Amino acid sequence: MLTSSFTRRLDVDVVGFADPDDSRLMTIGGSCNRIPPSWAIYLEHERFFAQPHLHYLLVDLADGGAKVRCHGGPPPCTNCQRLDFDCSFGDGGATTIPSASGSAAVEMRRGARACLECRSLKSRCTGKLPSCAACLRRGKTCTYPEPKRTPARQAEASTPAVSDTPTTTAAASIRHDAARSPTSDGGHHPLPPLRDRLHLVIDFFRHVHPLPSFAFLNEESVTQRCLEETIDEALVSAICAVSALLLGHSRYHPVATSAWAAAVETAVWANLEHPTIFKIQALLLAIQYRVLVGDFGRGFMLFSLASRSAAALRLMYERTDLSPLAQEIRRRLMWSLVMMDVGFATGLPECEVYPVETVYLRLPGPEEAFTADCDPDTDPTLLDPGLDGVAEGGLLATYVQLGKVRRDLMRLRRELQPITQPTPLLVPTIDGIVTSLDEILPRRCSAAELRRYAGSRWLARYLAVYLTWHQCHCDAYRLLLSGYKEAAPDTVVHGVPPTYVARSVASCLDHARAIIAIMHDANALSPRLRVAPPDMAICGYHAARLVLFISSSPQNPPDTGITEADALTQARSVLDIIKQQQKPGAAMDKVIIKVLGKIVHPAAAAADQAEHGRDSSGDCKLPNARFRLHDTRG
How confident is the model over 196-248, as pLDDT tens digits? Predict the structure, then answer.
C-alpha cells in the first residue's frame, strides 16, 4: 500500500475572471521529499493494480447465455447478424445527451478507433464519441486521429444541427480544429508512458528546478498529480519538453520536445479566455523552451500572452486569504515573469510589460518553507533542509533582488548613450548601485562554501547568484571604461575625475577575474554540474571580453593589471569551460562559443573571413544574437 506521505493530494483551484475568491489551496500536513525513480515505478504499479481491470472484451449476451465477441459496429453487430441473435449492443451502446438548446438530441456512438491518450498509455480504448470511458475517468481531453477513409461521415458530422447557433458552432469548430490540427513542429507526438514521464518530471526537479528561472513549480504537488494522472496535460508536456532538452535525452529531442512545446501553445490558445495558474506555468516553460532552442522571436511574442494572463489573475498582488503554499506559488510565478521581462526588455522602457514598481509582492521565500508549506518567515533552523542536508537559504530572493539591479543598470546605460556632455549624476548613481549590491550580498563566494553546495541540488542557484553579483559590478564599472562597447560616451567619461575612473577600471578587472575563478572552481568539482545556469556562459563571455580589452587598454592598472598573454590564456580557459558545460540543444551556448572563439582565436577567425570573403565576427544563425549577448547583462 502507498504510504500516507505519497497519497496526500494537493488541490489547486485557480482564480478566473468571474470570481477571484474561488482560488483555494488546501494545506498539506508535513513535507514530501523527492521521489526516486525506483519509487516512481513502484507507485505506478501500485496505482495500476488498485484500479478495476482495464482490459476487457466487449460481448453480446444472446439468447441462451452464449457469449459472442462484438466488433463494435453499428447495431446489429456483424456476428449477431450472422448468427441470427438478438443484438444487445443497441440497448446500451449509445447514450442520448440533450443538446445545449434542449430541442435536439445528440447520440453518442461507439467509434472503431482508439484515442491518442489510450494509444500513448497502451490501454484498451472504448472508442466512444465524443470521449472514451478512460479519458472521462482520468479527466483527460479525448482526441481521436483523423480518419483516413470516411468522407461521407465527415460530411454528415460537419453539418451543424438545426438548434445550433452559428456563434456556438463556429467557436466549437475553431477550438476543435486548434486542438486536433497537427503542429508545425513535426505533427502530434504523444507523451511517453507514465513511468518515463515520471522520470522526466523527477529529473526536472532535481536538475532544472534549481535554476532561478525555473523555480516556480512545487515539487510535491506536481509529482503527486503526475502519479495520479490528474495533472494539467499542457503543464506536464512543458515539463517533459524542457527536461528532455536540458538533460540531453536524444530519444525525445528535438522532434518530440518541439511537438510538446507546440501542444502547450495550442492548449493555451484553445482556452485563451480562461487563464489558469497551470496554463501560465505551462506557457512560461514553453517560452523558456523557445528561447533555449533559439526561437527568440516566438518566445518574445508568447511572453505578452503570459503576462496578460497573469494580469487577469491579478498575480501582482498578495492574496493573504490563501494558504502559505498557494501564496508562494503565485508569488514565484509572478517574479519569474518579472525576471523574464527584464531579459526581454534589455533596459528599454517601451518594451517592459511588468515594471518592478507595479509588482506589489514580497520576495520569494526559502525553498525549505516552500516545500513544507510554511510561512516564509519561519525560522530556517526549524525546517528540514532536504535529503542532501544543505539548505537553499533564500538564494532565489537574492537573485530576484539582483535582477532589479540589472534592470537599473541596463536602463542607465541606455540613458547615457544619447548624452553629449558630462553629467554630474553619474558618479553618485554608480556609487548607489554598488552600495545596494553590497547590501544584497555582503560577502564574496568562497571555495569552502562552493564545495558545501556541491553536494546539494542548489549548486546551480548558488553559482547563478554569485556570478550575477560580480557581473553587476562589472556592468556598473565598465561604464567608465573608455572605448569599450558597453561604456558611456567619451564625453561623459571625460567629465568623471581620473582617480575615480582608475579605481572603477581596477574594480571591473577584479570582478571579471572573480567570475573566471568561480567558473574554474565549479568546473573542477566532482561530480560535475549536470545543468549549468545560463549565467555561467553569459557572465564568462563578458568576463573574457573585459580582461582582453583591459589588457590592451591604456587604462590597464599599472599595479594590479593584466598582461595580454595572461588575458588570452584566461579567455581561452573560459571558452573551454563553456564548451564543457554546454547544454544539449541550447542555441545561446552555441552562439557564445562561436563569437568568443573568434575573439580568442583570431587566426582561425581571419582564415574563416578569407574563405568566405566577408567579416564573420558577428555571423551567427540567430537573428540579433550579438545584440542579445551584449545586452543580456546590461
Answer: 999 999 999 999 999 999 999 999 999 999 999 999 999 999 999 999 999 99
Q: Is the pLDDT of residue 122 over 80?
A: no
What does pLDDT average to over the chain?
78
Smallest CA-to-CA distance from 316 within 362, 349, 266 is with 362
CA atoms in the 13 A half-sphere facing the CB of 425: 4
- In a 13 Å sphere around the CA of 86, the CA atoms on its Cβ side amount to 7
Pairing outcome for strands 12-13 and 24-25: antiparallel
The full set of domain ranges for the chain reads 4-32+191-211+216-372, 419-631
Question: Per-residue pLDDT tens for 378-406?
Answer: 877 777 777 777 888 899 999 999 999 99
Question: Given CA atoms 163, 168, 174, 177 in this order, what sign does their dihedral have?
Answer: negative
Return the C-alpha cell found at 262. 507546440
For the record, the C-alpha cell of 437 comes out as: 549590491
Please give the grid coordinates belonging to residue 430: 554608480
Strands (E) across 90-156 are located at 95-98, 105-108
Specify the pTM.
0.70
Cβ neighbours around 238 below 10 Å, total:
31
For residue range 340-358, list pLDDT tens digits in order.
Answer: 999 999 999 999 998 899 9
- Alpha carbon distance 517, 425 (integer Å): 33
Amino acid identity, position 160: P
Cα dist. 122→125, 187, 247 in Å? 9, 20, 26
Does residue 391 come out as left (phi exceeding 0), alpha (psi in the -120 to 50 range) or beta?
beta
C-alpha to C-alpha distance for 312 and 103, rounded to whole angstroms: 36
Cα separation, 544 vs 407, whole angstroms? 22
How does strand 59-61 pair with strand 67-69? antiparallel
